[in-house]
Amino acid sequence: MFKHIDETGYTNDLACYLKHGGYAELKKALTLEPQFIKDEVKKSQLRGRGGAGFGCGVKWGFIDAKKTTKPIYLICNADESEPGTFKDRQIIHQDPHQLIEGMIISCFANSVHLAYIYIRGEFPEGARILERAISEAKARNFLGKNILGTGYDLEIYVHRGAGAYICGEETGLIESIEGKRPYPRIKPPYFPAVLGLYQCPTIVNNVETLCNVKHIVSMGGEAYAKIGRPNNTGTRLIGVSGDVKKPGYYEFECGALTLGELIYDVCGGIRNDNKLKAVIPGGSSSKVLRADGRFKLKDKEIGLNDIPMDFDSFAAIGTMSGSGGVIVMDDTRDLVACLANLSEFYAHESCGQCTPCREGSQWMKKILRRMTGGDARATDPALLKSVADNIAGRTVCAFGEACAWPVQSFLAAFRDEFEAKAK
Ligand SMILES: Cc1cc2nc3c(=O)[nH]c(=O)nc-3n(C[C@H](O)[C@H](O)[C@H](O)COP(=O)(O)O)c2cc1C
């Protein structure tokens, strides 16, 4: 059941993809009504795999091709910059045609004729693989003009970023494609579905989300919704890094495993048989959990090992499964140093548009540097908290939360370690 994706033996060219039934779902989709496909995606309860877990069918429902005279765009978000997250790059490297097929079906369903894959600058190999996959798909008329004789036209372009985390935020990404500095836009009014790329209706979806669409077309929305748990459907790719014996990325049904089963049964437990100390469950911006913490889930109190690996369970205990990046820390870790490391990243990546984030992320970095450098002041834990509290909720985009939540949650869960440094 816990099949490691690496072991599939797949090659990533079109011949191999076709041998395994590739593009059959595209052929099927092109015989269906676009609205029918949208309805199936809604029924599937597919949730976005990029971070927020927003309903894919709900997002697509904001766009009605019959009610707009503007072109509709679709953008695949392949920026994948959140520390701890490394799943989209595996899909791109190992199975690029699954993404291309998922995108073509999604574009057909939403009357899109021009789509982009926005890939982060640090993935040159991924960009080359996608370019090759696109030209292979075009050569077989799965893409381009009059796709498979149906009269439907679609072009997909790969757009390489220059290596900035903020370009993963959908409106920053849109600004970047438009050739501008990627300052995120204010919502409202700039919801991509309303005023997106070139001020036109735009769908932005994560790589993994779009791959799922092909499987929904194959099995139908209702059957797909039976995989996993209600409202947490389908499979998920989870990247596990840090102090486990077998780090890697794994695919399993949403909610089929608990966090403890993932760490101990799938990943072989903690390296050197050390003790587990803390887990960041969904990419570095999700709130950290103490290994010995008690969490309230549906009127029950449970331990960390018993948390089901699904969207709703992590949200219910006050964190998130976000981008599926589980970071495991053992009892040899200095958590002040771990947080300092994360804060360096966020201070470097703030786009600088909003003052609380631009200034605050630097201040948090400086305070944590002096705490790890032996120069901490007695007031530093309180100062750190106050800076973080003044960033979250006060910025144009959720980068503010992304940099403040680690600080707030590390401080809340491990205050003693911060106090000890501040003496
Ligand atoms: C600071 C920041 C960085 C983000 N980075 C990514 C990213 O690298 N990849 C991604 O798919 N979504 C990222 N997101 C979420 C996107 O804004 C957007 O919600 C997502 O691409 C939607 O796709 P989905 O609905 O399929 O999940 C980021 C959000 C924020 C606030």
Structure description:
β5 (228-229) and β6 form a beta hairpin. This protein has 18 helices and 13 strands. Helices cover 41% and strands 15% of the residues. It is α/β, with parallel strands linked by helices and 423 residues long. The chain has helices spanning 14-19, 24-29, 34-44, 56-61, 88-94, 96-109, 124-139, 170-177, 192-195, 207-219, 221-225, 259-266, 311-316, 335-349, 355-372, 380-389, 399-413, 415-421, and strands at residues 73-78, 114-119, 155-160, 202-206, 228-229, 232-233, 235-242, 248-253, 276-280, 289-290, 294-297, 300-303, 325-330. The strands form four sheets. It has a five-stranded mixed beta sheet with strand order 8-7-13-9-10, with helices on one face. A four-stranded parallel beta sheet has the order 3-2-1-4, with helices on both faces. α3 (34-44) crosses α6 (96-109), α14 (335-349) packs antiparallel against α15 (355-372) and α14 runs antiparallel to α17 (399-413). The protein has three domains: 5-226, Rossmann fold (3-Layer(aba) Sandwich), CATH 3.40.50.11540; 233-330, Ubiquitin-like (UB roll) (Roll); 335-421, NADH-ubiquinone oxidoreductase 51kDa subunit, iron-sulphur binding domain (de novo design (two linked rop proteins), Up-down Bundle). It starts with 13 loop residues before the first helix and ends with a helix. The longest helix is centred in the last third of the chain and has 18 residues, at 355-372. The structure holds flavin mononucleotide. The site of flavin mononucleotide (FMN) has 23 residues, from β4 and α17.
